[in-house]
Structure formats: structure tokens, C-alpha cells
Amino acid sequence: MYDSGKIIVGLIIGVGLLLFPFYYNAGKAAKAPDPQLTPKAKEAKVCVETTEYMRSSHMSLLDTWRHEVVRDGKRYYTASNGKVYYKSLQVTCMDCHSNKSKFCDQCHNYLDVDPYCWDCHIEPKENN
Amino acid sequence: MGMDRRKFLKIAGLSAMMGLGGKAAFELLAPGELEASLKDLPLTEGRKWGMVVDMTKMDEALMDKCIEACHRVHNVPNLGNPKEEIKWIWKETYEHTFPGQHHEYVSEQYHGRNFLLLCNHCTNPPCCRVCPTKATWKREDGVVMMDQHRCIGCRFCMAACPYGVRSFNWGDPRKAPKELNPNFPTNLEYPTRSKGVVEKCNFCAERIAKGQLPACVEAANAVKPHALVFGDLDDPTSDVRKSLHESYTIRRKPELGSGPNVYYII
Amino acid sequence: MLDKAIKGSPQYWSWVVFLLALMGVGFGCYLYQWFEGLRITGMSRDVSWGFYIGQLTYFVGVAASGVMVVLPYYIHDYKAFGRITILGEFLAVASIVMCGLFVMVDLGNLPRMLNIMIYPNPSSILFWDMIVLNVYMLLNLVIGWNVLSAERKGVAYQKWVNVLIYISIPWAFSIHTVTAFLYAGLPGRHYWLTAIMAARFLSSAFCSGPALLILLALIVKRFTRFDPGKEQIRTLGSIVAYAMIINVFFFLLEMFTAFYSQIPGHMHSIQYLFKGLDGYDRLVPWMWTAAFFALVALVLLIVPATRRRQGILAVACGAVIISTWIDKGFGLVIGGFVPNPFERVFEYWPTVPEIFISVGVWATGFFILTVLYKIVVSVKEEAAVS
Fold this sequence. Notes:
The complex is a heterotrimer of chains A (128), B (266) and C (386). Chain A has one domain (30-120). Chain A has seven helices and two strands. Chain A has helices at residues 4-18, 20-24, 39-44, 51-72, 89-96, 104-110, 117-120; strands at residues 76-78, 84-86. In chain A, a hairpin with a 5-residue loop joins β1 (76-78) and β2. The relative contact order of chain A is 0.12. With 386 residues, chain C is mostly helical. In chain C, α1 (10-36) runs antiparallel to α14 (352-385). Chain C has a single domain, classed as Up-down Bundle (Formate dehydrogenase/DMSO reductase fold). The mean pLDDT of chain C is 95. Classes of the chains: A mainly alpha (128), B alpha+beta (266), C mainly alpha (386). Chain A binds chain B through residues 66-67, 70-71, 73, 75-76, 82-86, 88, 90-91, 95, 116, 119-122, and chain B through 22-23, 26, 31-32, 35-36, 38-39, 44, 75, 139, 145, 147-149, 185, 188-194, 205-206, 209.
């Protein structure tokens, strides 16, 4: 082929860069997320909805909440078990899950998810 | 607000408990019961919220208290310079609040006298007309609301507002100088804003939804009742209508057709 | 045809690399603005729009220039303009790209930009401005590209392009009318609250746009083997002359209403711009410079002897551009915000990062213009040879 020298060198560099994340981390396993519940959360036994639902859909729940609270003025949520909650990340959710760095951040950091909620909503103070 | 005794006792009782420590109150009652009973109160449905500022009862110290209360409850930072400042409620002199009214022979007591200014929650707000995303809109109950989740920071509303009540977060409010904002954020139950969105007085939408009065009104009432009167303009028996009936009131720039709902008793 | 843009002389490449360098600097400054916020600009609570929005307004006008070549050619059969409609159309494309970029760098929350399409508010003029500007850019791009391709192949362009061309003519008027409506409907800003705002926008567009087009045509003639044509430039010169006369006349009409009525709201902004208000007079030398250049332009354009000489016409066009740029790209926006709703003066001046970001946007626009014009010139040069 034409310019085979340049092409092969280019390929080696390109593939090398592409595979960098793999050989840089070779032999190391990232720690699996280990979200911890606070005593208050453990006592409550259930969150606003079931654990499976919250795990898969807490983002859509919060998105729906923020629309309903701010735009529709509907500030109270009736859960599927009939209980009524005040829709607020800061006041309701973080009341039980006040250990953000040991709970929320565990999965978020593992998946490199950076929700911008905290740009405005105030994180609970943790005394580590 | 026109209401019967039962409603009044409910609101008074709940307000007292809120005062004792909002979250603690939630825990005192069985979870769910408090929230359900709060839901029952028809708090903002079918109202047309407005405010009367009685300048005959206002003085510098009282105005400062109102401003302090509002800015504390809503985590409004003190940025320390007029270029970037954010203010939801503030003082402005007579000449600059009512520039068309001012003349050279105006009574001495009004020269340089400060008035209390806030968003007028207009009936026909130009800001809502121009917002390209409806991040600001007029609610059914009259409140001109802000949705900071949606605001793209185009600042068209700031250009449209004839009253200069809107502020923009030119930088990150959490980076406000610490010397001027010692306990920022001052209210852990309310969010701050991020950089790049517009903000303004929201008639304490989150408080009136719970049957509370706006923070400025509550602060004023503690010192001098009826200096600030907040209520339902559609209810002829409300305090705000009574105030409007008893005294002559003026509004800022009424000739523009925006229909401001903050009235001043001079 | 895009490959024509990557084959060029060293002169061409040094110009392109220069523009790319400016784009890089602008982008770097924009990153600074991204992280620090718009506080790094000169804008404030009182003057909440500044240089970026002023430039947006100016370049919408330049974009409307395309119609001043297209209209005589397609509606009035002025065959001479057939040679240069493509230059006008591609100038429109580059201008609107700059408009879009100026909006984007001005937004406080750019990632949410698409909210205007996801949650549209038809009562907001900004919504309609977004639509008309983007459609106009696409119209010009599609029309220009198709006509040029056909010319390159030596065939007539397909009939459906005519439909787009006829739409683009009233559309050009709409882009500037809608942009004027951004300003002209705001009850609290008395400098802008005038019915003649849309008319003024159109008149300044129709002199500044073709003026820039003339200068670009002369540059193309100087640096390439494509000559846009003596008659074409002459006619454009007449168009600039008439449009500038109307533009200055409209401005004087505003002066009359403001100062004969003596209404403070009407007078104060103009006083701030031309005399100073409460001791603040930062813009006064600029506005009088604009007035001076407008006068120079008028004299040179009205007198046939000076208008018909290309060298002097070029000077006149430069004067038009300087004058309209100061008036529309700067004075218009600042004047609307001064004095503020409390009748206080808070002055504005762009900061260095703000200017560098703007330079980056201009460089991007001129980069696109260079690429498109290079393609045009290459096609025309080939067609001339064959």
C-alpha cells in the first residue's frame, strides 16, 4: 500500500491511545458502589416508593416533582402506599438520606453521573 | 384574607408549629397527617394576590427588617457592588421610584425618602410575554413565578420589565464574598440559585402555599401591623381591599398598562 | 465543491490560519466565561444586554443585504446582478452564523438553549426570531449552493430553487422586522418604544449590508481572477446611497419627536448618547463619530462624481459601516438601558474578555465567509476558463 510506513505508525499510535484506559487500569478493579443508609433511613424502612423503583427511577421522580412543584404548585405527593410526602429534595429526601457522600455519591461517582441539582439545592452538611 | 374562624385557627396553629422548628413539626404529627391537612386548606386557589405598602407606617429600620427577612429566607446573596447585585426587595428614593410624579416643590418629607420596592406581580406582565421558554409566567393566583430549572439566562425579561425588579446571577451566588455573607446559605430549607439564571421576588410562593404570609409581611407585622398588607384582591372583605378602600394609593408607572399589583399609600 | 476551500494560495492559507488563531483565542476566553459566568463582561443589573446583543442586531442587518441583490435580479430582471447574487447569499449565511453565535455566547445557561424549542412560547418575539433567522440561513445556503453547483456544471439550476428564492425575498424583510420587534414592543424602554424601529432597522440593514458587500466584491476583484463587475458595484453603490439617505432621515425623525415633544422619556436616552446625562458621557465621542461618518458617507454617496469612482465609493462604504456599526451595534442597545427604570445612569463598557470573545465570533463568521467565497471564486474562475 502507499505510505505504509506512515499508516502503520499511525495505526499503532491510534490503537494505543484507544486502549489506554484498559492497560492503565489493568489489574485494578474499581470499587463497587456501596450506598449506606442512615439510621433514620433504616428506621423508615421504605423510601417514598419501593427500593427497586427508587433505584431505577428516582431521577424521573425528581424531574416530575420539580415540574409539579414549581410549575403546577402541587407540593404534596401521594405515594403508591397512600402516604403523603412534601415534594422537596432538600427537605424530604435529604432528611433521611443526609449522608450524601456515603449514599447518593456512591453510585453517582461510580457511574460518573454529575447531577446539577446541587448547583442550587443545598447539600446536607455532613460531619465526616 | 377573608376566612372563617376554623381556617384561622388551623393556620395560626400550623404557623406556630412552623415557628417552633419546621421539620420538627413534621415529625411531631404522624407522617402524612400534617401534609394531608395542609393540602385541605384552599390556600392559593382562585386568589388574586396583591400587596399594599403603607408608607405612612414604614420607616428605614422596618424596611431593613423586611429586606433582611426576604433575603435570608431565600438565600439571596449580598454581592457588594451595584453591577452584579441581586435584590428581591429593596429601598429606592421617592424621586427614583416615581420619577414622573416628582417635582421641585414636593413636600420636604418626601425629598430623598426611601420607599420599599419589589416585583409588582403585574396583571399584564411584559416579562412573561417575552420569555422564550415560559421560565417566567403568570400563575392563576396572580403570582408572577420563576422556574429556575428552565431559565436559559437570555435576560429578555430583564429588558422587558419596566420596573427594574429582576436580577441576574452574573456569577455563582455561592462564591459571594464571605465577609458580606457570613452564614450563607442562610436558609437550608430553600435552594440557592446557580449562575446564569434570572431571579426576583416570587411573593413567597413556597410560603403562601403553606398558608404563611410572605416573609417581608411577617417581618413587618412583628413590628408594626399593616405596614405591609398582603391578600386577595378579588375578595372584597380582605385586608388588602380594605386598605385600598380606606386610603388613596398609587402604583409605579401605571400608564404602561402592565397593571402592577403593589400599591403604595403615601 | 467544498474541496475548493482546501486548495489555495499561501496568501489564502495565511488568512485562514490567522482566522483560526483568532477563533482559538475567542474560544479560550469563552471557556473563561463559561466557568466564571457572565460577570466577566461589562454587563450589569441595569445594562443587562451589551456588546454581544448589539452585534447580533448589527449582523442581522448585514444578513438582510442579500435581498438587495436578489430582489432586483429575480423580481425586476436586472440581469447584471446575476453575477453576484451568490456573494450576497453567502454573506447572509456567514452573518446569520455570527448572529447565532452571539446569542449563544450571551446566554447565561447555554446547555438549556434547546428549551426554546422544547417549551416554546409563541408570544415571545425571541421564539419567532430564532425561527426566521435559522430558516433564512438555510434558505440562503440551499439556494446559493444549488445555483453555484448548477453554474459549475454548466446547466440551469432546477426549478424548485425558484420557489425558495421567491420565499427568501419577503423572508429577508421579516428577519429584520422581527429583530426590531424584540426591541420595539417593550413598554419600559423608551428609546426603543417607537413604531419606526423596524423601518430604521431595515434602512440601516439595506445600507450597511450592501456596503459590506461592495467592499467584499472589491477585495474579491483585487485578490482573485473573478471580477464581480463594474456595473454591479455601481448599482450597489446607488442602493447604498438611497438606503443611507433614508436611514439618516429616519434618525432625524426620531430627533424631532423626542425634542419637539420635550417628553423626558423620549429625550433622556438620546441626551445620554449625544450629550451625556448626570455627568456620564462615555458614549458621546462614539456617537458623534458615527454622526460624522454618516455625513461623510452621505456626501460621498449623493454626489455622483464621488459615488461612481470605485476607490471613493469604497471609502464611502467604509464610512457607512463605521457609522451604522456604532449606531446599531452599540448605541442602540446601551441607549435602551440608560437611563434605567429608576431614571439613574449606570454605564456600560465591554471588558477585554468580552471583546476577545466577540473577535472570536467575528473570526468564525469571516472564516465561513472565506470558505464559501473561495468556493464561489474557484467555480467562477473555472467557468470563465471553460
